[in-house]
Design brief:
The structure holds two protein chains of two kinds. By secondary structure, chain A is an alpha/beta fold. Chain A has six helices and seven strands; from the N terminus they run βαββαβαβαββαα. Chain A has helices at about 20-35, 70-80, 100-110, 140, 170-175, 190-200; strands at about 5-10, 45, 55-60, 85-90, 115, 155-160, 160-165. Chain A has a seven-stranded mixed β-sheet with strand order 2-1-3-4-7-6-5. In chain A, α1 crosses α6 (about 190-200). The model of chain A has no long low-confidence stretch (mean pLDDT about 95). In chain B, the strands form six sheets. Chain B has an eight-stranded mixed β-sheet, sandwiched between helices. A four-stranded antiparallel β-sheet of chain B has the order 7-6-9-10. Chain B contains twelve helices and 22 strands. The two termini of chain B are about 20 Å apart. By secondary structure, chain B is of the alpha/beta class. Chain B has helices at about 1-10, 30-40, 55-65, 170-180, 220-230, 245-250, 320-325, 330-345, 365-370, 375, 380-385, 405-425, and strands at about 20-25, 45-50, 70-75, 85-90, 95-100, 110, 115-120, 125-130, 135-140, 145-150, 155, 160-165, 185-190, 195-200, 210-215, 235-240, 255, 280-285, 290-295, 295-305, 305-310, 350. At the A-B interface, α6 of A face α4, β13, β14 and α7 of B.
């Protein structure tokens, strides 16, 4: 059986490849904590391509405005309706940033309304337990960007399952380092990614 | 005078039991003949010339005559070997499966009380059809012979349990079954000692669980528990990896050949599973194929103890659901539902669940047909009532000709004698 593949979404507008170190770091984390079969390298998959349907988990990030074309919208709609999970992270730190405004608008239009995900949602206990909801990032705490600690993630829910998980906590920056640098951290800050992947694989 | 005395004696004395053999055709006045036989048995051996089976009432009378001492035999004039059984499908969306046995080359017309529903052409042993849940009485006609059966009223569905590792196949299989209406308990391994648990999958008992779906190789202890569950009557569905669990390999319907890659990349609606890789199954002696692809078996089933085991050769059906055409999610759901229904434990409630003789047992269609054997399996019923048919070539008696009652003959003779006597008196003759 082929294992889990970390897929990063390519979209025509914006800078889809703004966090090139994240996939390798998350793959390393998955292999480190679980016995899930995981492919050693990630892939980039165009949202407008039928290839999208080979990867039920897709990560999307960027700084710039997101404008999907009709093919990308149609594929994303089908992808979500069939049980795929799109994990979106806003790579910006600014209030009411362009990425946030345009991406949430596209998601709402294409998949459905984004709502606050309660901090006791099963996502936060899918593997590691996060009692206070989504872990904060250094960019939230050091006063950069919008100077806010976002208390919730957002999500589009379908039949109780997360179809789209949306973060504006900038995990793209938080997790964007070489896996070997994990030894410099007293607590591995990528552990929440295990929860996201395990949730995607089991719910 | 002697003749007259004999006739009078004969008319007053009880009719002696007739000797010899008599015959009647089904549909040729059998009911009237039985009425006559009840009053005055014309022979001590009755032969039924049957090309169809009498209705239950007449067959019961023949059986009663036989038990009362009349030698009732029958000649098989080509009674078709037909039978019907209805079973509720173990599927939350319901449905009734009609299983009809009929000779090859015949034509089966299925009907309910409102009229004809479908026509089937039996293969070697018969044919089956999936009918709507609302069907309760179904009749199948093969030529002049009809068979009828009633479906059990309801089916109490238990939970399903899915065991394996966290992965896309387990996720999308659970999703498909839940969307179909099943309650699914699951235990999916993520890391050593860490599992994602849904519901209460620990209790494997037919009182609670209809079937276990094993998607990956299990630890030895779990494999033994699942095997015990299946042998006690539970359903078991094995993926290729699941069938490699040592404790379950002995129950699997087949051994797996080397993996065959997908024949196409497109999930065409006519044969969407051609776009899936699969392990062809080499059947054990008592296994039955359920699905074939390019001449190879892709799914099979067998009984194991009191349970049923289904093995599928596909490992990644999720690709079909995610990558197929617009109908793919529904087709994926229906396919998994059919696989599970082939194995699931099916306790019945209401009509058909009772302990009355001949009533359906735990999902056993043959016993279900026994609820009214003469309606559901008439050829078997005539064997049961009258035994085996007379050997071919045995002398067949001709049907009895009407006889003049001896009392009437005596009366006529007496009347003629009185006329003769009166005539002589009037004429003064001596």
């Amino acid at each position: 059986m082929s294992g889990f593949v970390f897929a990063t979404a390519q979209y025509e507008s914006g800078d889809w490849d703004s966090a090139p170190l994240v996939p390798a770091n998350i793959i390393d984390t998955i292999a480190r904590y679980t016995q899930l079969e995981v492919m050693p390298t990630g892939v980039a998959v165009p949202l407008g391509s039928a290839e999208l349907f080979r990867y039920p988990f897709v990560f999307l990030t960027g700084h710039l405005p997101v404008r999907l074309n009709e093919t990308e919208r149609a594929n994303l709609r089908t992808f979500a309706s069939r049980g795929g999970l799109l994990f979106v992270d806003d790579h910006n730190h600014d209030v009411d940033g362009a990425f946030h405004r345009t991406c949430t608008e596209e998601i709402t239009r294409t998949v459905g309304p984004l709502v606050d995900l309660p901090n006791d949602h099963p996502l936060y206990s899918a593997f590691f337990r996060f009692e206070n909801g989504p872990p904060t990032t250094t960019h939230e705490l050091n006063g950069w960007g919008d100077n806010l600690v976002h208390k919730h993630l957002l999500a589009v829910l379908r039949d109780g399952r997360i179809s789209v998980l949306y973060s504006n906590k900038d995990y793209s920056s938080e997790w964007g380092y070489h896996p070997e640098s994990k030894r410099l951290y007293s607590v591995d800050n990528t552990r929440f990614a295990v929860n996201v992947i395990v949730y995607a694989l089991t719910r | 005078m002697l003749l007259l005395a004999a006739l009078l004696w004969g008319s007053l004395a009880p009719a002696p039991r007739a000797r010899g053999r008599s015959a009647v055709r089904v549909g040729g006045g059998l009911g009237a003949a039985l009425d006559a036989w009840t009053a005055a048995p014309p022979a001590d051996t009755l032969m039924l010339l049957a090309d169809t089976v009498p209705v239950a009432r007449l067959l019961a009378r023949l059986a009663a005559l036989r038990r009362a001492g009349t030698a009732v035999t029958w000649a098989d004039g080509g009674v078709p070997a037909t039978a019907i059984a209805l079973e509720r499908v173990a599927d939350p969306e319901g449905g009734v499966r009609a299983l009809v046995a009929a000779p090859p080359g015949t034509r089966i017309v299925l009907a309910d009380p409102f009229g004809a529903m479908d026509t089937l052409r039996p293969a070697a042993g018969g044919a089956s059809a999936l009918l709507a849940s609302g069907e309760s009485e179904v009749r199948a006609a093969v030529g002049a012979q009809s068979v009828e059966a009633g479906a059990p009223e309801s089916l109490a569905l238990r939970h399903l349990v899915v065991l394996g590792r966290a992965g896309w196949e387990s996720k999308f299989t659970i999703a498909a079954l839940e969307e179909r209406g099943w309650t699914v308990d699951a235990r999916l391994a993520v890391a050593p000692g860490i599992e994602v648990v849904q519901g209460t999958p620990a209790a494997l008992d037919t009182a609670r669980t209809a079937a276990v779906v094993v998607l990956d190789s299990l630890p030895a202890a779990d494999g033994a528990r699942v095997a015990a569950f299946a042998l006690s009557g539970g359903g078991l569905v094995l993926s290729p990896s699941g069938a490699r669990t040592p404790a379950l390999a002995a129950l699997a319907p087949a051994r797996q050949g080397p993996e065959i890659r997908a024949a196409t990349l497109a999930f065409a609606s006519a044969s969407p599973r051609r776009a899936l890789s699969f392990f062809p199954l080499q059947l054990r002696g008592d296994a039955l194929p359920l699905e074939a692809r390019d001449g190879r078996v892709a799914a099979a089933a067998r009984r194991a103890g009191a349970g049923r085991v289904v093995e599928v050769g596909y490992e990644e059906t999720w690709r079909w659901r995610l990558g197929g055409g617009t109908e793919a999610p529904e087709a994926h759901r229906a396919w998994w539902a059919a696989v599970v229904a082939s194995a699931a434990y099916r306790p019945v409630t209401g009509r058909g669940a009772g302990s009355a003789p001949g009533r359906a047992g735990d999902g056993d269609p043959v016993r279900g047909a026994g609820a009214d054997l003469s309606r559901a399996a008439p050829r078997a019923a005539i064997f049961g009532a009258l035994g085996a048919p007379a050997p071919a070539g045995a002398p067949t008696p001709t049907p009895p000709r009407p006889r003049v009652p001896s009392g009437l003959a005596a009366g006529i003779v007496l009347a003629l004698l009185l006329v003769e006597w009166g005539s002589r008196r009037l004429r003064g003759a001596p």
